[in-house]
Amino acid sequence: MSEEPILSVRGLKVSFRTDQGMVHAVDDISFDLDAREILCIVGESGSGKTLTILTILGLISDPNAVIEGSVRFRGRELIGLPARQLRRVRGREIAMIFQDPMTALTPVFTIGWQIAEQVREHTTLSRRAARALAVELIEAVGIPNPKGVVDRYPHELSGGMRQRAVIAMALSCNPALLLADEPTTALDVTVQAQILDLIRKLRADFGSSVILITHNMGVVAEMADRVMVMYAGRIVERGQRDSVFARPWHPYTWGLLGSIPPLEGERPHRLISIPGLPPSLLHVPAGCAFAPRCRWSRAACAERPVLAGSGGHDSACVLDPTQRRAARAAALGVLPGVA
Amino acid sequence: MISTIIRRLAHMILVMFGISMIVFLIFFATPGADPAARIAGRNASPETLEQVRASFGLDQPLPVQYGLMMHRLFVTRSLTSFVNRGMAVVPAVMEAAPVTLSLVFGAAILWVAGGIAIGITAAACRNTLIDRLLMILGLIGVSMPVFWLGEVMNLITQSRLHDTWLFAWVPALGYKSLSAQPWEWFKTMVIPWITLAVMYAGLYGRVLRANLVEAGQEDFIRTARAKGLSETRILLRHALRTSLISFVTMFGLDFGALVGGGALLTEVVFGLQGVGKLTYDALQSLDLPMIMATVIYASFFVVVSNAVVDILYAFIDPRVRGTGA
Amino acid sequence: MTGGLPLLEAIDLVKHYRVGNNLLRRLNKTVYAVDDVSFAVWPGETLGLVGESGCGKSTLGRCLVRLYPVTSGQIRFDGTDIATLRPAQLRPYRLRMQMVFQDPAASLNPRRRIGEILAEPLLVHKRCNRSEAAERVGELLHLVGLLPDSADRFPHEFSGGQRQRVGIARALALQPQLVVADEPVSALDVSVQAQIVNLFLELQERLGLTYVFIAHDLSVVRQVSTRTAVMYLGSVVEIGPTDAVLRRPAHPYTQALISAVPVPDPTRATQRARIILTGDVPSPIDPPPGCCFHPRCRYATDRCRSERPVLTPYGDGTQVACHHPLDG
Q1: How far apart are CA C60 and CA B59, in angstroms?
Q2: Of C238, C167, C186, C177, residue with least CA distance to C211
Q3: B127, B131, B223: which to substitute to probe chain A, counting the most A Cβ within 10 Å?
Q4: Mutant choice from B227, B229, B237 vs A, greatest count of A C-beta within 10 A
Q5: What is the rounded distance in angstroms from the CA atom of residue A220 to the CA atom of residue A212?
Q6: Considering just the CA atoms, what is the radius of gyration of chain C in Å?
Q7: CB of B286 within 8 A of CB of B35?
């Protein structure tokens, strides 16, 4: 693809000043996102995945936050952009949806009013036209009875319907990029399937790129074009979805995949679990952040490994391909889908 | 909806009668409160006391006395004071009511406007010098006792600086009727309004600021920001609406209490013959009929304010409306 | 499961709530949280209760340990019906059945040290005196994989997974026979989930525990349960040996539920025949007539709309409540 990536992040660092020192919540992240692509960022609590995308829209309001690095969207640098210009990007070129649909909408205004508010902020549509657009959008996201729902309040809708309304609002100005922070984690699994389907369909219809944050590898397998695994604020592995699932390179990724109880096939006697806990961000080890919990750590891990690889598949690990294959087999046995 | 209204009315009547009964019983349990002695005056002979008791019906059993008093209060409205013979209680309260109402309504407008202005400005300039300054001013306002402030205001406007152009317009203490002399009424009330409002404006400003800052942490504010809305719009539309709920609750309670006679100190300091002053005088002289009348009047307003506040909730917060599902 | 008396049996269990505070009580609505549920759990096995929000599984779990009073029905624990026992009579049974809750942060008193939290049940039920309690607490901590010095620390000093271990230790303090676990791993990160799931399995083996394991995550339920019951809108729609239920689901809802679970395998993800249910998970205030699932069921017939199906045996040890169960 000779097309320019729509989003280009280089050397992103987000740190917080605390009483006990600097906390490096996001530590030197770089990645690209192409047009119409779905990138899934996977990680557990404390991995820095949410902060990464909050930085893109400048939504970190903590006065103790220190943000460094570059985030270029369509060639324009977003970090340090003056507030007025940033506001024009938010909601219009880049939209964001959050995890908990129950609290995402203002409780005192109707759904239609809130969608129309966004539309009128960024376009010159009249009140009537904005409301009509709101009805269309509500219908497009599959909410039944759109003309009725447009005058309903958020508390009158279920969680799944609210999340659809949030998606409708986010897409109201046809953004080129949609940021979704665990949009289905708080929803029932059948509703989750509907919402993920919706996001895929909207990507096809509207042509937006999507960054989807999740901790669920199953969601990644269904949705991602590309995957990025984060741990302790760093990228530990990234690549095309099929490549990462078929031949995962990083021991943390193996741990994540093995932790999932399989729904089909043999039931393991015990689940593969990663021993220990993620490091406190105040005391991240000097070298590889994962080394203390890694079965295969060695002397070389005392130095922070470089994110490197081939064919679009990178990982931050010192194991060479032969060592890696042996270790992976030991870690996972035969993983369905692994060649 | 109808059942709610009926329920509220029933509550209101229950509350009012409950309070009246309690006041009635307390009165007779208060030591040194033999009303006959009070009416007859000091050094009255036992025969006089007996005569007084008979003529005022004070020798009847308590429930009968209570019943009679209620009858005279509500039905015939002819209840007379124990202290000022022949003075009908109900008309006295009715005459004092407009004074209190003028005072409290005017002050309320000032303190709501002031409180909202202070709260919004402080929240918008959170953690800056302006914010801290406003909060300190608010604290000072809350801390100044209203009678002290009132006296100081009087000192300045009535005596020390009365002859200067600043305060020459301030009329002498005492209420002027609104219907008779509207301009005089206004000039009379301005200083009392400000005095009463200062404390409440400070309090409400501080509370509103705290609520706004708290609301700012909510998820829906983050969504609003991600939509590209300006900070001003987020504060005034999204955060303010949701923060008004506790503001309205407090207002309902304070307003009800003040109208019912809680503005007593202000009334005394500025020589306004309102319900508060009436109640105060009645308590001093243990004038039971007057006390009853003012208490019932006060409880009526408190209950009505609460009901109005609840109705206002339904307007401000749609989650409260309807039966929900 | 091979004969013998079930340790726990629910018979025609019903739990209704009234909501609303209308003056005319008749106008108040009823939440049919648990609507005529029957099942049995044999000693040493794990019954998984799975379903989505509003299906009543959490309410059912709490009713089983008598945290909520039941509206009607029987709860037979080791042969005795405990549903209507008074508190004093219930006390000895409380020792034998315990509960582990979902939110490790909310279920531990933040002002108490771990040691106090764990010692409390022992002291309240007079299992040991204060000096012995400390030793027992040490044993419990070791059992769940925590360091002995944890006893002197407060809950906020621990991670979510560690707090859940404390919750489990507390449930085990009185050496119960039955543990009802209400979504014990839902609030945890996936790698920590694996640790806690493993812990549950190990403890079951070591202590001979019987579990009722409530979860919305089918994969987790499959890992832990010998038998699985699928709940929808207050009723059990299918129940049977886990593998039979998950490999050959008989009820259309079970089938849809299984197909909705995202599987971490891209090749399978694209191949699967996905059944996407329309509409939302319904509210238990207004359950539809007939079969509770018929509004969202692609196979619904007139019979489904009017007649409520009961659990009937289907083969392979499963029972299903459906007029037209799916062929294997």
Answers
A1: 65
A2: C177
A3: B223
A4: B227
A5: 9
A6: 21
A7: yes
Asked if residues A228 and A245 have their Cβ atoms less than 8 Å apart, the reply is no
Helix ranges (H only) for A141-250 are 146-149, 159-170, 189-206, 217-223, 241-246
| pLDDT value of residue B245 | 83
Q: Is the pTM of this model over 0.90?
A: no
Would an 8 Å CB–CB cutoff place C222 in contact with chain A? yes
Extract the tokens encoding B196: 């009463």
A183-242 residues touching B, CB cutoff 8 A: none
Q: State the pLDDT confidence band at A338, using cuts at 50, 70 and 90.
A: very low
Determine the Cα–Cα distance for residues C130 and C128; give it in Å rounded to an integer: 7
pLDDT at residue A336 tops 50: no
Least confident of A128-132, A275-279, C150-154, C228-232: A275-279
Length of chain C equals 328
* DSSP code per residue over A183-203: TTTTS-HHHHHHHHHHHHHHH
Chains A and C form CB pairs within 8 A to the count of 135
Q: Are strands A209-214 and A177-181 parallel, antiparallel or unpaired?
A: parallel
Query: What is the DSSP-derived secondary structure letter of residue C287?
Result: P
Q: Of B301, B296, B298, which is closest to residue B20 (Cα–Cα)?
A: B296
Which residue of chain A comes nearest to C296, CA vs CA?
Answer: A190
Task: State the alpha helices, DSSP H only, in chain C.
Answer: 57-64, 87-96, 114-124, 130-143, 160-172, 190-207, 218-224, 242-247, 252-260, 266-271, 302-306
Whether B130 has its CB under 8 Å from any CB of chain C: the answer is no
Range of lowest pLDDT (A28-37, A51-60, B59-68, C121-130): B59-68
Q: Which candidate, A220, A219, A168, places its Cα nearest to that of A192?
A: A219
Mean residue pLDDT across chain C = 88
How is residue A149 written in tokens?
């729902």
CA distance B245 to B249: 6
State how far the Cα of B58 lies from the Cα of B64, in Å rounded to an integer: 10
ipTM: 0.87
Candidates B3, B323, B325; nearest CB to C23: B3
